[in-house]
Each structure stands twice: as structure tokens, then as C-alpha cells.
Amino acid sequence: MPVDQSQPTLRQKQLLKELRGCCDEMSGQQLHRALQDSPYAMGLATVYRNLRQLQQRGLVRCRHLPTGEALYAPVERDLHHLTCVDCGQTLPIEHCPLHNLNIPKEQSHDFQLIFHTLEFFGLCESCQKGQKLP
Prior knowledge:
There is one protein chain. The protein is an alpha+beta fold. It has helices spanning 10-21, 28-35, 44-56, 105-108, 125-130, and strands at residues 26-27, 60-64, 70-74, 80-84, 90-93, 119-122. α2 packs across α3. It is flat. The protein starts with 9 loop residues before the first helix and ends with a helix.
């Protein structure tokens, strides 16, 4: 199924504007609160439904923290992270090691790529010091 090339709805445009105006990722709850007192206010379920549609269209990326929380960012912001599985600290990786990766056509099975995510999980320095390793 090709990426939907039609124009985003007014609600989707407002969500994209908020995401692009933020220097970091935002949760659905943060987006909901940011729009709460504006003419573009919408219910939380509507925020998540529109984020999902934007993700399916290749305009928004989503990543999940070990806590289960989902964070959203525009796809043009190619960020990847190191995440501590103990305290949840997240550090951005400065350069995407997959940026110029080409998947051979015979391996892609005509899969249309719209974005990618790359996450590394481990223990931050502080949590390593706090654990007693054998």
C-alpha cells in the first residue's frame, strides 16, 4: 500500500506544527496539553488517532520507551537513542548509522520504506555503578 500523498487534515497539520516547533519528541499527552487552550483543542483519543494516521503516512515517527510510553517526532528529524533499561534515561545519538543504508531489492520484497527507528538499550553509567556485578 503506497504512502497516502493527500494533504493532512487541519488537526494533523496542527499536530505536525507542534511537533516541528518542539526541539524534542512529544508524547500524545504532551501534545494534548499543548493544544488544550487553543482553537485546535481535541480529545486525547483524537490526538492518538491522528498521530497514528500521520505515522502511517510517513510524516511522523514513533518510538516506545521501556516504560511503554510512546514519543513522537516528525520524520525529518532523524534521531536515534541510547536508553537505560533501569532508570529510563535517554541520550540521543548524534549521527544515524543507518542513514545511507540501502536494502537490496531482493531482500526488501518490494516493501516501501517510509522511515526507520534505531534504539540501543543498556545501562547508563550511573545505573552500572549502582548494580553489584558478580
